[in-house]
Amino acid sequence: MTVTAPPTAPVAVEPPVSLRSGRLAAWVPWGLLAASLAILGGVFFIVAVAQGDGFNLAGWVITSALAYLVLVWVISAIVEGTRKAVDRLVTGIVTVAFLIAMIPLVSVAWTVVANGLARFDAEFFSSSMRNVVGEGGGAVHAIWGTLLVTLAAAIISIPIGLMTSIYLVEYGEGKRIARGITFLVDVMTGIPSIVAGLFAYALFAIFFGAGVRLGIMGSVALAVLMIPVVVRSSEEMLRLVPNELREAAYALGVPKWLTIVKVVLPTAIAGITTGVMLSISRVIGETAPLLITAGFTDSLNLNLFDGRMQTLPVFTYTQYANQGIPPEAYWDRAWAAALTLIIIVMVLNLVARLIAKLFAPKTGR
């Protein structure tokens, strides 16, 4: 008896991707982009030579991006259909918008680094501007002032903001006072920084008289700006904690306050830390409120409650606004202070990410 093997199903062979297969090859969008850049680059070069002007880099990039969007939409509509063409067009618009948003960020970072490295030396980080005229000097007094003022502002604002957000989420749901607090927090989020400086100055002037300048006054002004950011960010993170975790703790007989401390806060610690760092980054570069409250000085002052205190934003402003001879020395110190401020913010963000990673609840067994 002969056994006939069952017929095997034919294996479908995918046709090669080409311009006529209903789908554009992967290299086509890149080729269109390169062609747009090359053709319009030649046009702008010819115009620049004819007019005797410099090459218009911004105009070349913008027109090339527009030409690429038009080309990719038209060719995709012919080959792939309208639906896929619209998808490619929207993808291109999003990509171009992202690149446009990155241009000022990269430009600012490059400008600060390029100009700030001229005075990024040991003297800049070890000396102040006391009795310094012209070249030399440093910003150690401004660096310490920025760290101390910001630290004091964080100590004031973080507990207040965090406890306010806990009340709004855990205790004040649906209550009229909670709605009022939310409204006031939203209003405080948009107030100008100079208003916070004037508030701190008026508050301390009641007790110490007009004309007083103290480092702690700057901390109070920055805390006023930090509190609404901490409240809103922490509130959103606490609302993301699943209610099942709270209910499981309540079912085991855990009190509400202990549930918040042991369950809710550890679950949301990563997002809360990010919100706190966002608030610090929001205020560490403020200049106007610190000019009014902490003032400026050329000497090192480590006492927040006695005398004026210099900070990096104010140091940068004063060096650029009050130039002496040679002016290049003042410009170099201003750019170096700006670069130092950016590095401090970057380090604080890295520390915050590390803290969030260490204290975040472990998900594995």
From TrEMBL:
TM stretches of this protein: 27-51, 57-79, 91-118, 138-169, 181-208, 214-231, 263-284, 334-356
Alphabetically ordered keywords of this record: Cell membrane, Membrane, Phosphate transport, Transmembrane, Transmembrane helix, Transport
Locations listed in the record: Cell membrane
Entries under CDD domains matching the protein: TM_PBP2
Keyword Protein biosynthesis: no
Superkingdom assignment: Bacteria
Database matches in InterPro entries: MetI-like, MetI-like_sf, Phosphate_PstA, Phosphate_transprt_permease
Pfam families listed in its UniProt record: BPD_transp_1 (PF00528)
Membrane topology classification: Multi-pass membrane protein
Segments forming domain ABC transmembrane type-1: 143-352
GO biological process: phosphate ion transmembrane transport
UniProt GO MF annotations: phosphate transmembrane transporter activity
Record-level GO cellular component terms: plasma membrane
Function noted in UniProt: Part of the binding-protein-dependent transport system for phosphate; probably responsible for the translocation of the substrate across the membrane.
UniProt similarity note: Belongs to the binding-protein-dependent transport system permease family. CysTW subfamily.
NCBIfam families assigned to the protein according to its UniProt record, in alphabetical order: 3a0107s02c
Name under which the protein is recorded: Phosphate transport system permease protein PstA
Species per Swiss-Prot/TrEMBL record: Microbacterium ulmi
Gene: pstA
